[in-house]
Amino acid sequence: EVQLVQSGAEVKKPGESLKISCKTSGYSFANYWIGWVRQMPGKGLEWMGIIYPDDSDTRYSPSFQGQVTISADKSISTAFMQWSSLKASDTAMYYCARLKAAAAANEGFQHWGQGTLVTVSS
Amino acid sequence: SYVLTQPPSVSVAPGKTATITCGGNNIGTKTVHWYQQKPGQAPVLVVYDDRARPSGIPERFSGSNSGNTATLTINRVEAGDEADYYCQLWNSSSDHLYVFGTGTKVTVL
User: How far is B10 from chain A (nearest CA, A)?
Assistant: First the structure.
């Protein structure tokens, strides 16, 4: 069974750094694109970026380029997203999600993590 | 960047048919996926590749895509179908590779 389990909720202050994780199991981690999706309170889904763990090929939405860093560690089948300096506007639920088919980019996100709620407040 | 426009809300009586549209420029030339998101839960893929259903998704959910509109149809609507629905596609011609629609709240009357 494919599973994506995300790290727990975080409460941070503006300017602090943060790294959240998405631990996967049940499939070959290296061979499937994993994306990150933001959902601000009461709002829709926004694609942030995506990584192919096998070679760490990473693509960012222009809206999030330079704002976050996405990475993956094949040895522990885990993807990460990190911020160096959080802002209040980063308050949101963040989901990791795996594309449906191996090595294919033009696919739906079939498997999702449960989400990580990040709250940034002074 | 490519924009996918959905109606903010759709209301439907139990047992009737809900139709959710997703408008985009020549969207019929692209491959569309649909997600259901219930309150407090992660999205669930309900239709992929315009019209295919993942294992476990009822046959009541179907999709189509042509021209400038993709459509998700839910037949014989049940109370449990009340949720937000999002269309999504891969836009290889843009840096905004993965685009989500604006979302539609389906209310079962």
Answer: 16
Instruction: Give me the residues paired with residue A51 across strands.
Output: A34, A58
Percent of the residues in chain A that have a pLDDT greater than 70, as a whole number: 100
- The closest alpha carbon to B8, from B84, B94, B93, belongs to B84
Rounded Cα distance between B103 and A29, Å, is: 30
**Which chain A residues are Cβ-neighbours of B44 within 8 angstroms?**
112
What is the CB neighbour count within 10 angstroms for residue B39?
A: 7
B53-87 residue pLDDT tens = 999 999 999 999 999 999 999 999 999 999 999 99
* Token pair 């629905």: residue: B85
A101, pLDDT greater than 90: no
Q: What's the confidence (pLDDT) of residue A106?
A: 86
CA separation for the pair B63, B81 (Å, rounded): 15
How far is Cα A35 from Cα A52, in angstroms, rounded to an integer? 9
Check: CB of residue B2 under 8 Å from CB of residue B96: yes
Q: What is the pLDDT of residues B1-33, one digit of tens each?
A: 899 999 999 999 999 999 999 999 999 999 999
Contacts of A37 in chain B (CB under 8 A): 43, 100
Whole-angstrom distance, CA of residue B63 vs CA of residue B53: 9
Q: Do B97 and A59 touch (CB under 8 A)?
A: yes
DSSP state of A40: -
